[in-house]
Every structure is written in structure tokens, then in C-alpha cells.
Amino acid sequence: xxxxxxxxxxxxxxxxxxxxxxxxxxxxxxxxxxxxxxxxxxxxxxxxxxxxxxxxxxxxxxxxxxxxxxxxxxxxxxxxxxxxxxxxxxxxxxxxxxxxxxxxxxxxxxxxxxxxxxxxxxxxxxxxxxxxxxxxxxxxxxxxxxxxxxxxxxxxxxxxxxxxxxxxxxxxxxxxxxxxxxxxxxxxxxxxxxx
Amino acid sequence: xxxxxxxxxxxxxxxxxxxxxxxxxxxxxxxxxxxxxxxxxxxxxxxxxxxxxxxxxxxxxxxxxxxxxxxxxxxxxxxxxxxxxxxxxxxxxxxxxxxxxxxxxxxxxxxxxxxxxxxxxxxxxxxxxxxxxxxxxxxxxxxxxxxxxxxxxxxxxxxxxxxxxxxxxxxxxx
Lengths: 195, 174
Hints:
By secondary structure, chain A is an alpha/beta fold. Chain A has helices at 8-16, 30-38, 54-64, 76-81, 84-92, 123-129, 141-150, 177-189; strands spanning 23-26, 44-46, 70-75, 97-103, 106-107, 113-114, 135-138, 157-162.
């Protein structure tokens, strides 16, 4: 199965090409490397840990910044650890949040063990059942283009993007948490001094 | 407690308002009923019900990155759920303000509440959270105000643990 699915680096580069001033939160591991490889900016908040927290961090950010688009880019393993966050987000329904799962059906950082999505769990189906009215399943370049065209529009969105499990070269962004949060808040709020 | 609310939940609510809290993330507890209701009725506050407590740790980190202050309300049994997520606060020096109602500490009638209740304060401390234990109702408001300053001015994770002496303990009659 490692040959099936889109190239994750190319897919993320395409999705974020027209991001404008959107805020991007990344789930630990490959999604962090993928987003960094697509272009580092202070408006990326990279998680290197806090597994299971990416979607919820995106929710809190989206509620605090209702006029900015917030896009969470994470992996299937990360989201599976915080599956309840889909229910919480589905209840809150912020119009400015998108959750994109790069699904390689593997735990890529720990030895490529299969995740539950390799064994039949359908994350898009879970999101739909949890209250996401707009759910996309992306398997082809055409579907990826269609997702990219509306990723930064209005409305709560969930997208499961099937990506290849082929290994990628790590593209490591800054990792110091205080640096990442300071540069993010300076870029978004104008200052990190606000309490 | 009077219907108008002059007990500790009212003091806690006023303290959160004075601290500028805009997002309230919670997992319900009987001891938090009035405070949660006050927050839900407040149009300036977004009260978000969670499926598990660590969701709130991540959510409030996002809120603060976006310029809003928040508070996490939960029962002591949820402390263990938060431990790994608290890496966010320690590594990024992102504030966390938590108000935790205790079980398993005083007159507990459900033995299953005792392990996490007894470990909650130490578990939080091990995860880098500064713990304030409160055993009297009139100390909740001032202690929460102090914890809020520690959180938002000094950028630390700070928790106020409201003891079962304040909340009251439930008898599980045979």
C-alpha cells in the first residue's frame, strides 16, 4: 500500500499555496515537516508533541480569531488519539476552521506501524457523524485541487487526504516552544507581550 | 447558598470576569454546576463542553495564542488525562488557569475516586503546574485571582484545587 495515495509534500504544498494570512496548526511528526517544507512562516504553529491536541488547539484559536481562517494539518494517528475533539468541534461549529488529515494509515515516526485507518476506521465518516456538515475525501490530484479551492473559504470543513506511506526526508522547522509561540503571537497580534 | 449566588461559585465567576476570561472549557462536575451555568449565561464568554479534560488544555493554548484568556474547569478525576498535553504549557510557556473541584480527599464515599483525588496535586506539580489548594469557601475567589496573575502575567500553568471540605461530599448509602 505504500505506493498508493498522493505525495504528501506535494499535496500540502498545493493545499497551502494560496493560504494568504491563514493560521496553520500542525500535528506532530510528518504533518509538521510537510507544512514546514511548504514554506515556513510565523503564522505556522508547529506541534512537536501534545499528541491528540492539534484539532483542539485549532478550535481555541478559531474561537479567539473569528475573522481569520484557521487550518489544522495533522495525521491519522494524531487525530485518532484525540477523536473526541471531532465531537467537541462538531458541536461548536466554528465557521473559520478546517481540519485536514493527511492519512497514510501509518504511524510514520515510530516505525510505520498500521493505524486504525488501515483497518477500516473512516475518519471522514467519524467527522460527519460528529457534526461536520462539510466533509471531503481526497484521493486524486483533481480532488486535491477542489479542496484547495475552498480550503480558505467560509465554513467548518473536514478533509481526509489519502497520502502515500513512502518515506519523506525530514524537514525540521524551529522546535523551541517559546520561540514558536512568540513569533506566532508577534505576527498575529503585533506583540507577544499581551497577557 | 442563596439563589442570587453569594457563595464561592459567584466569587469565582466574578474573578474570572475581572481577569478577562473569554473561553471556558469544562468537563462537568456537580461542584461546578453553578459556575458553569453562570459562564454559559454570559454572552461574552464562550463555554465549551469537552469530551475529555486534555482537550481543554490544548484548546486554551490555542485561545491564548489567538489573544484570548481562558479557564479550564474540571473534577480531580480528570487531572491524569491532562498530563501529556501539559507539555504545551511547559515547553511554550503558555498560560493555563484551571479550577479543579476535588473528589477523594475528604469524606469520600466512592472508593474509585480516591486514587486520582489523592494523586491530583502531585500529578499536576510533576507536570509543571503550580498548585494552590483551597480548603475554605471564602478563599476561592482570592486564590483564583492570584492564580490568574501567575498564569497570565507570569505565563505559568496554575491550578486552584477546591477541596471536598468546600464542595461537600456525597454519601453513597447502602
